[in-house]
Write a structure and sequence with these properties.
With about 325 residues, this protein is mainly β. Helices cover about 10% and strands about 50% of the residues. It is built from 3 helices and 27 strands. A hairpin with a 7-residue loop joins strand 3 and strand 4. The radius of gyration is 25 Å and the shape is elongated.
């Protein structure tokens, strides 16, 4: 073989090997979307047992929605595909909870990738009536059918310096084209009527708030439930009671107080900023399974100031 040709083959082999090595550094599985997704989730310390439910392409950018049905989670991950061959992850948004008590919910965001602004709208619907949506954003109205399991997904890429008015509206329609409801940037979630949330054993769940200002977290293990309430915008001069179902929080030796203090065995006083942060563990035999519960914070001898939606502890 001609030495000149041989040197060219060797040179291009070295260049190709170097290129593949760089590509492997960016993505350990550049030829498989599923494997590349798995590595991305592992790097973020999320369970990797997911499936792809939606892929949207815009230019050389791919936005992928992944569902983790076992843990009721989904993720949105960005990928590029150089030369149309290799899947290279470019960040994303991870760990969105899919709530049974939610009728529909929309998320949106923007990221900068290679001096481009990547705008995304995505979310899900648990409404069997909804078949398609229209999204009013960026360059007008976009209409798509809902994906498997009710997911929806838009992506748009513009030059970074381009001024965008990102005023989001997502409208949900039934099969006959009847408008069911609309979400926007001020109200991005619609709850089911009289929802009852299900809390699985060995899980941790943030409960939606029906009334008031605060957060409630339920941690359900094999023997009981740890309930954490963070209520704020309370009156520091008032006393409050906390309930899970009809069980009062207290006495002091049974609770952990991080903000506020106890005035008696079952009465709490917020701190000077109007905050109460209290947790208490209750055995399952006290709460009962398959029974509807609510967490409430009540101003003493007056009305409730914080109430969660009802929930049920699953077997």
């Amino acid at each position: 073989m001609n030495k000149s040709i041989l040197f060219r083959i060797i040179r291009w082999s070295i260049i190709l090997s170097f290129f593949m090595l760089m590509l492997y550094g960016a993505s350990p599985h550049p030829f498989s979307l599923e494997k590349s997704v798995e590595e991305s989730l592992k790097s973020m310390e999320f369970p990797a047992d997911t499936r792809v439910v939606s892929v949207v392409k815009e230019g050389h950018m791919y936005s992928v929605i992944l569902e983790d049905e076992e843990h009721a989670l989904f993720h949105q991950v960005n990928f590029q595909k150089p030369l149309g061959l290799f899947w290279v992850p470019k960040g994303g948004s991870y760990g969105f909870e899919r709530k049974e008590e939610t009728l529909a919910k929309a998320y949106w965001g923007m990221s900068t990738i290679n001096n481009k602004s990547v705008y995304k709208v995505y979310g899900y619907s648990n409404d069997a009536r909804a078949t398609h949506i229209k999204s009013n954003w960026l360059e007008g109205k976009n209409e798509i059918m809902l994906e498997e399991n009710g997911y929806f997904h838009f992506i748009m890429i513009v030059n970074r310096e381009q001024n965008i008015n990102f005023d989001l509206e997502v409208e949900f329609f039934d099969q006959q084209g009847q408008l069911l409801y609309k979400l926007d940037h001020m109200n991005n979630e619609k709850m089911k009527d009289n929802p009852v949330a299900k809390v699985q054993k060995e899980s941790k769940k943030d409960m939606p708030i029906e009334k008031g200002n605060g957060n409630v977290t339920i941690e359900y293990d094999h023997s009981g439930v740890n309930t954490t309430i963070h209520a704020y915008k309370l009156d520091p001069k008032q006393l409050y009671e906390i309930f899970i179902g009809d069980i009062l929080f207290g006495p002091e030796q049974n609770v952990i107080i991080r903000h506020g203090n106890m005035n008696s065995d079952t009465l709490f006083r917020p701190d000077s900023n109007g905050e109460l942060l209290v947790s208490m563990y209750n055995p399952i035999r006290v709460l009962g399974k398959e029974k509807e519960l609510k967490v409430t914070v009540k101003k003493y001898e007056e009305s409730n100031v914080l109430v969660t939606i009802p929930f049920r502890l699953e077997k």
